[in-house]
């Protein structure tokens, strides 16, 4: 997923780029998952490169199944800077381990499905002929 953009994006354009709703982006900002987004004089949010990079991070973490509370904590630790590097690393390592466990479960499920499909293919081949 690339969220790179040379021009700042409106909230609707940013939301479309990452596959979320504008309401979700507002919610993420409200709960501290996203930093306050710069606004025009008229109050319209403009998502620049930094905001889009943060959104990419959010989408990657979301894709791992990380709970939103943990993502908010991770964002808070990012704001702390270098003082929180070890804690951020620990959070990501823990999430990585959970993701590997999910991958193993999915692989086992795929093997099961493959066996069932092969069984049905064999039955249909016998019936056909």
UniProtKB/TrEMBL annotation:
Signal peptide: none
GO function term, MF aspect, one: DNA binding
A Pfam family matched in the record: MerR_1
Keywords associated with the record: Coiled coil, DNA-binding
Coiled coil: 96-123
Entry-linked Gene3D superfamilies: 1.10.1660.10
Species, as recorded: Streptomonospora nanhaiensis
Record protein name field: DNA-binding transcriptional MerR regulator
